[in-house]
Amino acid sequence: MSPALPSGLLGDLDPTSDRAVFRQIADQLREAIDRGRFREGEKLPSEAELVEHYGVSRMTVRNSFSILQGEGLVHAEHGKGVFVRPRPPVRRLASDRFARRHREQGKSAFIVEADAAGSHPQVDSLEVKEEKASQDVSTRLGSVRRVLARRRRYLLDGRPVEFATSYLPLDIARGTQIAEPNPGPGGIYARLEELGHHLDHFEEEIRARMPSPDEVKTLRLASGVPVIHLIRTAFDAEGRAVEVCDTVMAADAYVLSYQLPAT
Amino acid sequence: MSPALPSGLLGDLDPTSDRAVFRQIADQLREAIDRGRFREGEKLPSEAELVEHYGVSRMTVRNSFSILQGEGLVHAEHGKGVFVRPRPPVRRLASDRFARRHREQGKSAFIVEADAAGSHPQVDSLEVKEEKASQDVSTRLGSVRRVLARRRRYLLDGRPVEFATSYLPLDIARGTQIAEPNPGPGGIYARLEELGHHLDHFEEEIRARMPSPDEVKTLRLASGVPVIHLIRTAFDAEGRAVEVCDTVMAADAYVLSYQLPAT
DNA sequence: CACGCATACTCGTATAGACGAGTGGGCAAG
DNA sequence: CTTGCCCACTCGTCTATACGAGTATGCGTG
């Protein structure tokens, strides 16, 4: 037996409206969340309570929840309830994050930054191997057939937030420390410069889309969370592309920030 | 009476799997799409056909479709069927799009670019008015109370792709052509420079998220399409923020591209 | 007091059926 | 031949029911 909902929390249905019932319910819940009647992390009324409150069937209520889930507003926990999804702290990526001065410290940018923010950083799923270049990577690197691929996943306080793969032409990377699991202080960009590939500029392409099922697993994404897909190409002083880095980020964990000259 | 599906197109269910039936069906459809068995714009088997093929109830099939819809892979058309969602052509935004040289032409960047790409550009929903600054805008502009807001929506070949609002401090914009519906050749940045606010650099913040219901309406977004939220602040030579532009873009219509120096 | 189990409550999955509404093709009437 | 209607097929919405599985709480046993 569910106790009645606090009156006034949620309104009634409008039977004359041509808006579907489950949409009306979703609208009311969304508005209640927006107005702060339910706070971040707080539990929404259970399906059974809403069934009783609105006098509809359970599937209708679930339908409403699935709308809000698709919007990334709420998430359901089996056995517990449906909760307002808390917005995780976001990591800000500044456009100068690859500046040479940051590289001269020794530790990786990710670690340094996370430590500074007081969170616990972690890097795992390291895989370093030679493989056939995809069509796209090959084009970006200038028609190479095989590449060195470096895959890794980044976590903050135990939560996976980013999955990245770097691709480098074999004639540059093979036999160097870049082909080792640990590329040493300053990361592969420091190594590239030591090898005489003076970095000139980067190009970053940004897309946003819904994640594939694989990405949902790897990044443990809640439903309704898109990913930011970033492809960075590094060019040396001769204008040659020396690295392509393909990164998929949990969109709710990141803000990208760029400085552009107004020349 | 539905004719049987072509055999081999879709597999069978695995009753021993602990993967839910509707997920298995979604998996098979997704794989078939990925492999090109169903092409862009092509119609998937109808709900009734899948009900018969898999021997499940209709709600189970609909559940599968709703997964794929959430992933942005398919879209349903009432009375017609469920179709593989075609990927619209993407508009590429280069990081030099606000370079002074582009401004000196006269026409707006959006129009020029679209014309060049052979598509039909359009700008509507113009609204120009003074209003109270939101907390966020006020902070970015340096504690201003009221601002001039310029709202507009951009369309490509009839499809809305972007919705933007520019905010300017009143002491800069009031009484100038910036406060007019048509800001004149080169846009408001050209006017700002004429008014002595020599632009020095821009800062852009990028987020990705699922759209609000309002944004779905304004941009006529299909389900499963995120938005890119870009907030650009323009700074003049004195380091003062002279404009904040808040832009929401249909993520399936854009690729953002940035050039970063490796200094 | 500590442990374990029963129980009630939560959401997850699935079935079966009903009616409504949008679309398009075919057929019959003009 | 053209027009207009009917019908079959499509997805949209909603009900009612059933069982399974994860979670938390409290109570009884040791």
TrEMBL record, chains A, B:
Signal peptide: none annotated. SMART domains: HTH_GNTR, UTRA. The keyword Protein transport does not apply. Residues 19-87 form the HTH gntR-type domain. GO terms for biological process: negative regulation of DNA-templated transcription. Coiled coil: none annotated. It comes from Streptomyces shenzhenensis. The lineage of its organism: Bacteria, Bacillati, Actinomycetota, Actinomycetes, Kitasatosporales. One of its GO terms (molecular function) is DNA-binding transcription factor activity. SUPFAM superfamilies: Chorismate lyase-like, Winged helix' DNA-binding domain. InterPro entries: Bact_HTH_transcr_reg, Chorismate_lyase_/UTRA_dom_sf, Tscrpt_reg_HTH_GntR, UTRA, WH-like_DNA-bd_sf, WH_DNA-bd_sf. This is GntR family transcriptional regulator. Keywords: DNA-binding, Transcription, Transcription regulation.
